[in-house]
Amino acid sequence: MEDPKRLEEGTRLEIEANGHQLKKDAEYIDHEKNYDNEQKMRKATLDQLPEADQEQKPEMKQKTKRVATLDAFRGLTIVLMILVDDAGEVYPRMDHSPWNGCTLADFVLPFFLFIVGVAIALALKRIPEVKYAVKKIILRTLKLLFWGILLQGGYSHAPYNLTYGVDMKHIRWCGILQRIALVYFVVALIETLTTKLRPTSLKSGHFSIFAAYKWQWAGGLVAFVIYMITTFSLYVPDWSFVASEDDNATRYTVKCGMRGHLGPACNAVGYVDRQFWGINHLYTQPVWARLKACTSSSPSSGPFRDDAPTWCRAPFEPEGLLSSVSAIVSGTIGVHYGHVLIHFKDHAERLKQWVSMGLILLIVACVLHFTDAIPINKQLYSFSYVCFTAGAAGIVFSVLYIVIDVYGLRTPFLFLEWIGMNAMLVFVMAAQGIFAAFINGWYFKNPDKNLVHWIRQHVFVDVWKSERVGTLLYVIFAEITFWAVVSGILHKLGIYWKL
C-alpha cells in the first residue's frame, strides 16, 4: 500500500506541473493573439495608405481608391500640352507668349508642377521607412532626368525627322521633365525628411495648416529668396554667341553691363545658364524670336527684320537653372493643396482653403504685373508668373473637385482621368511625337508621303478648306481623342506606365 504522504506529495507535484504547463499554454495563446492583432492592425494601416506608399513594399500592395480630381487635372494638363504644341503653329496666340504676358501654353508646365506637389503630399502621407522613401525619390528623379535628356536633349528628332542622335557638344541638358525632376526631388525630400514633425491633427484657425507645415514653406521661401536676390543683384556683362545662317557662321555681341534687367537680352536667368551650362547647350529656338522687335510676322514666326537686335538670334533656355529654382515654389503650393485634402474632410472647408488661396495668388500676380514691378513672364519664371499660374491651377482644381467629387459628374471627364492615369505614356507618345514618328517611318517613296501627313491633309484640312480649322480638328480628334481611347483601354486592362 502506497504511503499517504508520498501520494500527497506526488499529487501536489503533478498539480504544480500541470499548472505550470497551463500557464505556458496561456502565455503562448496570448502571444498568438497579440501577433494576430498586430498583423490585423498592420493590414488596416496598409489599407489606408495611398497607392504610392504601398508601392514601397511590393509584397504588401493593397488596392486603394484613387483621387479622381487628381487624375482629371493631370489629364487636362496633358491635353493642353498636346493642343498648344500641335495647334500653336497655326494659332500663335495659343502658343507661348514671346516674352511678358501669359497664354494658354504658358499654363501647362506650372500645372504639371502644381499637380506633382499635390501628388507628393498624398503619396508621402505616411512613410514606413524614411531611408527607403529617400532611395525611391532619388531613383525617380534620375528616371525623369534620363527621359528628359533623351526626349528633349536633341537625341530624338521626332516626329518629322526620321534620324536620331545628338552631338554631345550641343546636347541640351534642360527641359520639361528635367525641371519636374528638380522640383519633385526638392519638394519630396523636404516632405520625407520632416515626416516626424507632421501633426496628426490641426489646431483651430484658418492659418493652422500653414504653421503645421512650416518646413515645407521654409523650403519654398529659400527658393524664392535665392531667385529674387540673384535676379535683381547679379551683374550681367556683355556676351557673344555664334549663329549659323545659310551655312555661314556669324559671331554676334550683346551689350549689357547692368543689374536687375528683366528684358530678353540682359537678364540674370539667361546669364546663369550661359555660365553654368555653356551657351552651346541652350535651347536654340526661343519664343522671343516672335517679338515685334525681331520679326514683322509677330506674334507668328517669320524672317528676322533687317534692324532686329542681335539677341533675337541668340539661344535661351526656358527651363534653365535659376528659373527652375523659382519653379520650386509652384511645387510647394501644390503640396499645400494636398495637405488641405488630407487634413480637411469637409468639402466646404477644403474649397474655402483652396479658393481663397487661389484668389489671393491671382490678385498678387495682377498687382505685380500691371504695376510693372515684376511682369508675368514664363521664360524667366518670374514670381508674378508663379502666383498667377498657381492661383489659376488652384481655381481649376477646385472647379474639377466640385464637379467630379462633390456633385459626382464623373462620366464626362473620364477621358481626362484615363489620360491622367497614363500621363507619362501619353506625354512620350503624343506630346513628344514618338508614336507619330513611328508611323511616319512607314512612308511611300519619300518621307513626306506618310500616313500622319495624309490623314491631316486629306481628312481634315482639305475637307474644311482651312489650314487653321483642319489642324485644330486633327489635334482634337486624331490625337487627343485617339489617346483618350487608348488610355481608356489600358485602364480597363490595368496597364499603367509609371516611373
From TrEMBL:
Pfam families linked: HGSNAT_cat
Q: Does the keyword NAD apply?
A: no
Q: Where is the signal peptide?
A: none
Q: Where are the transmembrane segments?
A: 67-84, 104-125, 137-156, 176-194, 215-236, 321-342, 354-371, 383-404, 425-444, 471-490
Keyword annotations: Membrane, Transmembrane, Transmembrane helix
Q: Where is this region: Disordered?
A: 1-61
Specify the superkingdom.
Answer: Eukaryota
Sequence ranges assigned to domain Heparan-alpha-glucosaminide N-acetyltransferase catalytic in this UniProt record: 66-210
- Entry keyword annotation includes Cell division: no
Enumerate composition-biased segments (Basic and acidic residues).
1-45
Q: Which PANTHER family match?
A: HEPARAN-ALPHA-GLUCOSAMINIDE N-ACETYLTRANSFERASE CATALYTIC DOMAIN-CONTAINING PROTEIN, LD22376P
Q: What is this protein called?
A: Heparan-alpha-glucosaminide N-acetyltransferase-like protein
